[in-house]
Amino acid sequence: MICILLVAGHGTVLETQIKSDETGLYSHLSGVPKALLPGIGGKKILDFWWETVNMRQLFTEVYLVTNADKYKHYERWATATDFPVENVINDGSTTLEDRLGAVADLELVVRSRKLQDDIMVIAGDMLCADQNFDIAQVIRFFRSKPGELIIYYELEEGEKSSSRGIVEVCPDSHRVTRFLEKPQEGRTASRLASVVFYCIQRDTLSYMSDFLNQQPQTTGRTFGQFWEWLISEKQRHVFGMKLPTGFQLIGQVGLSDYTKWLTHYSTKQQGSPAKPITCRSYARVGLMGNPSDGFNGKTIAMTIANFWAEATLLDSQTLVLVPHPLNDPTEFGSLQDLFCISRKEGYLGGLRLLQATCKKFYQFCSKQGIALTKQNFTLKYDTNIPRQVCPSESCLFGVFLFMPQDLPKPIRANFILNVETDELFITAGLQDRVVQVYEGLVYMDFSKEFMEEHGFGSYTPMDMSELPPFWLAYLSDPSDSGRIHSNIRQRWLSEEPLVIEAMRRFAELTDQARTAFRDKDWSRLAQLMDQNLELRRSIYTDDCLGPGNLKMVQLARQFGSAVKLPGSGGAVVGLCLDQARLVEMRQAFQEAGCVFCVISPYNPSASAVGGQH
């Protein structure tokens, strides 16, 4: 790939105002072209771009196009920065009136140097807010798409869309559907601004001469009009990629623009260190319909405040994942200590989940056209969730990592599940991920037709007022989730009638439970919970559910409580409407060596910050 930096513009307004400034503060900048003015941190604006693209593993050549009026400035700059002087191209123009135009400058390089490769074009006199974005990620995204690539950013507050080329981008395909050059107010609701930062396929380079033949006037030879023509008339596929930054000093700007934006971006960069970001994710219990979430069924689940996991993100020089002292132990009191911990907890803590999520996040952003900054971080986590209740560490990073506009909740749940199933091969379903993303009490419909059409299920938050006293008990020794799921998936894929009918019945029970929640008919809900368990036993068998789970079920029923499995195994959730029996049952569970707690439902609408701290 070849990179071309365009600095052939004539900054007449800025240059004139610097010369006429009476304060004397800018006299040393008189005659200096815009690209060579001091940028953020005192570094020349062009220095930043040269450092960004000066990578042989990405670009075979880098060219710089300037005008005759400022050629000597750039020649001296090239010798001082090890830029190949022979790659500085003079377009011959000396004034704003006899300029060639941006597209003509690009065509000049392609034609004169006989370029036959994909090219990246950047305006080398733009001020970029983020000095750490990953240009390699831009190239990877470009090569993954069958067309050209336009870089865009979201306009900052106070920026008018009439001052920029505005793009409308399909959120699914990332294809640019419209390009509007400095549109008047009301023509588009888009706030996505394009700048001179493009990737163009080699086969498209020939279109430039056709465009220039149709635009004899210099004023029409802008990239904005070129893209409008290419998209609207030539029907070329053009895609968009969002950079998490801003761009300024584009085109003809004045001294006040230069000082304002330089101060603004410099203040941002020199500001106080970023505050740590901490987010908490709550454990969940499946109240009805599980485990049909993986089989086009329906479920109801609820987040609980009793147990939680949280992650903290801090700014750091390198990317660091901090092992948890309890869940990712690396130091033991003795060999016997290691043996006991490993036998009970296994070998798989939360660290692998964080690492897999980071990897999947980078992959997701690259695929979705979201360029990331190179800024590093330290990520650590904490949790009080017993493994047999709900392994929620995997949800942590996904919950706070994405802004809602970049990843809607249904897609976020899919993302988290994919981390577990695709990266770590963990047996899991969508129910847990959905309820932990939405939080609260959630009704979920995973019907095949809806899933195939939308890529996710239909999720509806439910009223959480006046909920009955649910309880939770779990074994001291964790259960293996994978074994509990057994061979049901194979039987379901084989369309075994018993399994197909059971999943249909799970969905019916869930709809009936939804009605019971709405009517606050807790006796009916208790009956449905018992039916859910018996239906599960009929297809999974007691051998699969295991003696520990069945022991807790039998104990609960001795006290007249409804009971079912809230997840894959190792815990039971119940509903006891008799307060006196609930107290007696707690004691019985404790005497049987189980942990028992009354559930505190987590209601996000009752929390001022929705789970973030």
From TrEMBL:
User: Boundaries of each Nucleotidyl transferase domain copy?
Assistant: 32-218
InterPro entries the UniProt entry points to? GHMP_kinase_C_dom (IPR013750), GHMP_kinase_C_sf (IPR036554), Glucuronokinase-like (IPR053034), NTP_transferase_dom (IPR005835), Nucleotide-diphossugar_trans (IPR029044), Ribosomal_Su5_D2-typ_SF (IPR020568), Ribsml_uS5_D2-typ_fold_subgr (IPR014721)
Signal peptide span = none
Q: Give the molecular function GO annotations.
A: glucuronokinase activity
Q: Which domain of life is it from?
A: Eukaryota
**Domain GHMP kinase C-terminal, first and last residues per copy:** 514-592
- What protein is this chain from? Uncharacterized protein
The coding gene here is: LOC116329939
